[in-house]
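haha ok so turns out i had the wrong file open the whole time. this is the CORRECT one, sorry everyone. sequence first:
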Amino acid sequence: MFSKIVVHRVGNKINGESLTLSQEELELEEGMAEMLENYFLGSFKSEETFHFYSDTYLVNNPIYSAVSEIFDDKSKFLWESENIAKHLFEAAENPRVQGGELFIVFFEDEREGTERVDKIGIFKTEKRDSFLKIFPKNESFDIEKDQGISLSKIDKAALIYNNDKETGYVLSVVDNNKNGDMYYWFEDFLKVKQRDDEYFHTQEALMVYKDYITKQLPQEFEVSKADQADFLNKSINFFKEKEEFKLDDFAAEVLQDEHVIESFNNFKTDYEQDMQINIAEEFPINEAAVKKTQRHFKSIIKLDKNFHIYIHGDRQKLATGEDENGKYYMLYFEKEV
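then structure:
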């Protein structure tokens, strides 16, 4: 359970809205505190993590500096929460960004796996939902419509763990309401980048391979749509079945052809330079990253506007040809399911 909580109202300065700062922390009943904690933390479902960064020095990142002060001395909680709210107010450069309540929460000595760690949560509510209030009136009931905050999903959230301070801490970040501005929360306000960990390497390795198969491979080699689908299936199966990624094993089992392997290595090098990232050639495979990225691996052959062929397994059970009626696919199977 959190030990400190404060709420500020942060409007959009571009739209003439104001910033209203609380002068004291919230005092909550236990039931309300438990409900809010579930609301705040319920959106952190991904294992993807981030870290603060700065174009100069980390201390020049306003949120990094503020949370560092709180972690070092929790008596500064209220003062630094105001600094966080002020920075969020100044970060709004787009009139489409919605104003809302900003909650700053301190989770003290929380259990995280086998360890205990302090955490700071930054949560922003933006959307308002309509709801009905029903109450007795004389011998009947009356109904009123009102608006409030839905507890189903937080709009924006960041959870900062008091780990790895020297490299920008460890964060989980969520933005469920981008308001037409995808940079406002991640970049303009928090200024964070994805951490260089096994989740990142798994995700990036899968995406660079998908891009290679769908974009580069057809330019260099004669491959059919069925062959491309087969490559995609083999790659995702490799990541599902292995606990560790090794580029040499991947090349031998999935790519196989030495010319394709050379082509892929060149594509990977160019990809890393263009994206300014480094994808390790050996790393533990993160199951959550595979599951999330798998949705982009769609092994589908679209035939005009008449048919879609979904390929999930043996490429050898699919053949192509052409006769007087046109091009065709021939499918082999043992039984209908």
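Residues 21 and 82 are 7 Å apart (CA to CA).
again sry for the mixup
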